[in-house]
Design the sequence.
């Protein structure tokens, strides 16, 4: 129970009632056609503290048949169902992911999903989605909230 002396919270509101760690198998898929991929690395680790989930992902694929926007899925918990909650990853490293020169690779996890849509943005342009690549790798960390 996290309760400072003299605080106005209750033991219920200040109680850490869930802690969990584990592994999961992330996967890539296309937004138009999911397709399949052959993986070199497919490592996912997570920590869940209350409603907060942090995932670490290293995913590398050597061939794939997806089409449309590049997505990474398989996260262990569904994101918050409220439309006001979005999460973006901290990209550590990537290679062979195609996007416009001068832009930055990022991503967006929308409400009520277990996947991340890869995006790009740059100076004075609106963010846009990244196309599925048949071979690439991405390493990132993402923190999001569940219901």
Sequence:
């Amino acid at each position: 129970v996290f309760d400072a002396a003299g605080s106005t919270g209750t033991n219920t509101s200040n109680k850490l009632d869930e802690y969990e760690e584990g592994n999961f198998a992330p996967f890539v898929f296309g937004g138009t056609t999911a397709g399949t991929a052959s993986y070199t690395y497919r490592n996912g680790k997570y920590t869940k503290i209350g409603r907060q989930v942090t995932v670490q992902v290293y995913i590398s694929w050597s061939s794939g048949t997806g089409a449309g926007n590049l997505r990474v899925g398989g996260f262990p918990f569904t994101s918050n169902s409220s439309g006001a909650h979005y999460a973006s990853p901290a990209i550590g490293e990537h290679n062979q992911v195609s996007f416009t020169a001068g832009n930055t690779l990022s991503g967006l996890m929308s409400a009520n999903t277990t996947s991340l849509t890869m995006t790009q943005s740059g100076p004075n342009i609106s963010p846009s989605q990244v196309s599925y690549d048949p071979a690439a790798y991405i390493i990132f960390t993402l923190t999001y909230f569940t219901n």
Summary: The mean pLDDT is 91.
